User: Fold these one by one.
Assistant:
Number 1:
Amino acid sequence: MRAPVRDPCSRARRSGRVAAVLPWQTIESVQTRAGILELRRRGERDFLITIAGRILMTSAAHRSEDELARLACTALTGKPRPKVLLGGLGMGFTLRTALDGLPVGARITVVDLNRPLVEWNRGSLAFLTKNAVADPRVKVVVADVAQVIARAPAGQFDAIVLDLYEGPHAATNSARDPLYGADALARTWSALRPGGAFAVWSEERDRAFEDRLAATGFSVQRHKSGQGGRVHIVYVGIVGPAAGVKGHTTSRSS
């Protein structure tokens, strides 16, 4: 799962302003297979989502999500009607940035396992992203994105973007991992058009994943998002001749 977000109150504690920080209030709670999924709010604009007591994401920190979408859209420059598959909705920030970077002829299919997240994005969280899920270019599907990719016809998408709680890491290095294993990458390659992009959020660098991407035939770029503190990784693989792995650093504020 994604690493827990740092305590949103820690900066206030260090500055001695604890009394000025409002408490988090749970506004919705749903039981899932992974534990209790909760939406919490502090004040009018601060939100966080937890599962089984772990903080997954906050409305205050979405730098890596923005960067993931930006890099994926950059790879689609010049395509007037790109078809994009986005795995993972979260609070909708990845989707919002993708919509801002894609032409009016684009079509984005968003796939998420948890229906409550979809409902929250249509309700309490909608104003954070200008109601991104309601954009006419968007179709939302409640399903397993690994299965959607596996069932996709060859060459269906111009880009596949994975912004999931669990990115590639040592535990997902099995050839049979449904998202990041060698077999799954072959299915992803097949679902993409020539020149298509496969963009993946990762908590940290995973060299074994990089090797599998290159072995599948992707030309791979590794981007570091931000400077200082926790720096996440965005992988972008392009369908084309294998060209090893190129590293890049991008600095963007959250």
Number 2:
Amino acid sequence: MGKKSVWVLTVLILISAPLLSGDAAAKPFYEGKVMKIIVTTKPGGGYDFYGRLIAKYMQKYLPGSTIIVKNMPGAGDVIGTNALYFSKPDGLTLGTFNRGVGMTQVAGVKGVKFNMAEFSWIGSPTSEVTGYIVHNSFKNLEEVLKADNMRIATGGIGNTTYITVLLFYKMIGQSNYSFGTGYQGGEVELAIMRREMDGNFGSYDSRKVMVEGGYGRFVMFIGKTKPTGHEDVPFIEDIVKDKRYKPAIDLLKGINLVGRPFAGPPKIPQDRLKVLQDAFRKAVLDPALLEQAKKSSRPIDYVSPEECEAWAKSLIELPPDLVDSIRSAFTAK
């Protein structure tokens, strides 16, 4: 090979090098690989919906991959979250879990083996607004707070519902409630409609169809913005006005920021993690995904891995008095 041919070949290699970034860089590893997304809830419901939606569209941005979804419910999301935490950090296992499961770590709940601050964060497809939804026989929050006993449907002790109920009623100094555990997804709506349960703290977007159908009513919200048509419904800070509880309210509002978090086990290599984060972001913003989510009345509001990581680390930096409140809340009933 002459000097000119060598020079031309070198130039071609240098020109093509940048093309190996992004999706092309993913192909040598992910081509032919089977990935798994652990969903820590039962099939059906919001977390399962987003898990399957993300699995479908991430494949497009991880060339040659196949992504399957595995539901691992139990112990208020603790079982599946533990399993994700101890998965091999090879970039082939991701998971999505109830954003309230981090409270079990703060509370020191038995059986929790994960550390939220150590997960390899991928991002979230949306932020959330939490609503206190009750059977439509209740007209407003005032009636709810006067009830002899509010039976609250919840998935379990690691669920956002559980800790939110405990903190809310603790902050207002009432104990006229009880729990019904093991309810997830559409089971919550059915339980309230049948009057097996009286209410639930859950995602506005997961429960709004029930309200639109005339079977339930929102009586309080936790979030940044009130949903259209519910402007008269109070925020939690409108009800809990004692300034000493502001850190707790900020915590509950922060949980809503991360919405439906996705993460991998700790110590995924940074180069592979970057590929996963990029594929996740592209999937979330894919026009076809946006259209499918819209048809299913599911919001999309991309949350970055950096925002998710900051939230996770904040859980281990909570004020001692708030940590004590969370721990006492978990052992109160």
Number 3:
Amino acid sequence: MKTVSSGVLESLNACDVQGKVRLGVSLSAALLENRFERAGCFSWIFVFCFLFLSVSADVALSQDEARIMKRRQQGILTGMPFMANIAPRTFVDALGRTLFLAKAPVRVVSMAPSVTETLYALGLEERLVAVTPYCDYPPQAQRKMRLGGTHPSPEHIVALKPDLVLVPQDFIQPDLLQSLDRVKVPVFVLRAAQLEDVLGQIQMIARMFQRGKAGDDLVETMRERLNGVKERIQSLNRPRVLYILNSDPLQTAGPGSFIHQLIELAGGMNIAGEASSAYPRLALEEVLARDPEILIFPVGTSEGIPNEEQQQWRRWSNLSAVKQGRFVSVSSALVDRPGPRLIDGLELLAQAIHPEAYADESTRKSP
């Protein structure tokens, strides 16, 4: 019996799945009919168990191989962890959703000006199939197909056949996200609360499109300019600053926002620096008590504080900013958009808050 068991075991690995199944049936019949000697019972039971486990493993392996081959034919999949072994380029968005990219996206929809500017800065403009009506930079972006307003229809987006939709968390409507998920359109939700988030987001988008070096180079340049601003203002006093995002109700930027960080990096002291939210509302009494020395107004064609609203602040003649006439206007596109031009906004803020630190540049530029 020992010899028979050894022979059976040696031949198992040479059998295919169907052969092992047939062999298992034969052994089962033999056991039921008691066609083996009592002394060899345990040997046959061992062979039967080994055969059962072998068949199960082969069946599972065959099924897994079929599934893997099927998945390898797909390009971009979302929410499917098994792709990690096939496409190691894995990304997690602001909502904790996992995106697996087997290859760089070819057709991309941008749902924010900051995203569009980032794609252009990385040399990916040819892959943009649609942008928002507010994507005005660079000027070439205005020639791209436009989505319908702030609430584009899912049918419009699906008709574009995008490989990827990039959208900030504040811009995406839950019902739109659900609709796109339902039809398997890959959506990646972005969130940049801090300046480091902005830099990291640029590098992540670059990696998605296999442009990692371009992303690293862009971020390195931005950091060099950031350090240049720090060096200019590091030894200077910090005047009190109020950044006015909205006049009625009065809203500003507080801790947890990249705008607050820009003010601090530019050498100012944000009077809302101790607020409990990123974009708090302030009572006028609070502003009068904290007495800002500089009022900063974002301005732009489609967003910002109109000049007539700015002039209304002159009613508060006791404010230091009014007494000194320090009303500063900065481009909202440079300061409010978490994209690659944010460093341009930082430099403008630094020049407005500390013009003395940039006096040498103005002297060189004058004829």
